[in-house]
Design goal:
This protein is mainly α and 74 residues long. Helix content is 97%, strand content 0%.
């Protein structure tokens, strides 16, 4: 009888360990997914920042060109 109880306890302990491993695996997957989402959001914000910088740079050059042309006219 004691042997049976001991085996059942080991079996349940093993199942609990397996459940713990599954939870840890799921948590690890969730953390990895969160990291990928964070990186994706950062990359999209960076792309917008770079695009905005490029447009502003172009606008400044255009204004400089126009001002230079106008100064020769006056």
């Amino acid at each position: 009888m004691k042997y049976r109880l001991r085996e059942q306890a080991r079996s349940h302990g093993g199942q609990a360990l397996a459940c713990g491993s599954e939870l840890a695996h799921e948590e690890s997957g969730a953390n990895a997914e969160y990291l990928l989402i964070s990186q994706s959001v950062f990359a999209s914000k960076l792309a917008l920042t770079q695009a905005t910088h490029s447009r502003v740079d172009h606008a400044i050059k255009t204004l400089e060109t126009r001002l230079t042309k106008q100064s020769f006219i006056f």
